[in-house]
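User: Run a structure prediction on this.
Assistant: Running it now.
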Amino acid sequence: MTLADQRRRLPVVDALPRGGNRWSGTEARSTAKSPTWAIWELTLACDQKCMHCGPRAGQRRPHELSTDECLRVVQELAELGCGEVVLIGGEAYLRNDFILIIRAIRAAGMSCTMTTGGLNLGEERVAAMIEAGVSGVTVSIDGLAATHDAIRGVPGSWDSAFAALRRVRAAGGKIACNTQINRRTRSELLPLLELIAAEGIHSWQLQITVPHGNAADHPELILQPYDFLELFAELEPVIDRCEALGVRLWPANNLGYFGPLERRLRKALRSHWRGCSAGVTTLGLDSDGGVKNCPSLGGPVNVGGNWREHSLREVWEQSYQLGYIRSRTRDDLWGYCRECYYADTCMAGCTAASEPLLGRPGNNPFCHHRALMLDREGLRERIEQVRAAPGKSFDNGLFRLIREHKDPTLRAAHGPVQIDEPRVSRAVEPTGPGYPVDLSKEPG
């Protein structure tokens, strides 16, 4: 038996974490249904230089999975019951074996899609992808040409993205787009919609830019919580136009939450917001084998283990990092979100939005409902960076959250009404007897 096999057979201790996180390995197994989606960072190599990139893509990670290892991961995903594998990067097409991996995913009975910037997605690559079984391609387009090229750091990348849409459609594939909403793109959503709808997209995903990775170095990009009042006023005609054009609007997990547009915003999902899906319906995979609860989160706080040491099923069913969101309660929330009317359902929105901002999940100011309620009281919230990010993949700085009068005169006279300082991350909590097992570390 090899060392890797021995590691896979090591027992996992069921342990109760402290505080409000009443989770154990036993509870996780009872609630860990098969993931609906596995979002797989096939490589961190990238041909663009996006200023909002969470993983700070560009160069391959050290020790990325080999072709043989990737094919074994595919089999474990199928055995786990995963329905769809979404290939991301970096840029998945920069791996020479990505066509083999697509074929293996389809042969294992799962659907396969890809999200890409499309910069070098030429006709040969597109034809091979579609023939191998990619059922749909989502191309990331952030604003109109000048804005997109500036954010992506590559002149001509906007034209290349549209060319990629046309090539995929011409080859018989389904096409969609996703767009990040930030202070540079928000005013360009409506004209952008007209252009991408004309290309024949079936869906458009909108998401806010969150302050992690490269975006943590550009706080000027990040929407202020008080911006959400104007943003959702701007989104209403966007929703109207999507309906008129037959484009399905698909809100990402970090957009929305129980404002007056919630029903229309999530019409395609046929449900209101029901809480973060990290580790619930979603499994994230890093290109070096890291298994995590969400593709937009990273670090020891969220990586439950490495595939080279533990099977996917073991990490999915038994690690704290993959399981803690499944059994959260209101007691795990803090700040405004803990007292909110929707707390038990919303659970403070998207973890990948709140954790990079304030150091831990459970209090999320990027919320339309929250902005509306504070506005009724004559208040608003804004964020202020107090610590820069260290420069690692999916890292974050830290921000304080300032509540203040919305009236400038009152604001100048009275200053902040309340300041929520960032809170210590779960990453620094101790481990040991009575604490969650951390499968991200090699067994001793």
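Confidence is low (pLDDT under 50) at residues 1-30, 426-444.
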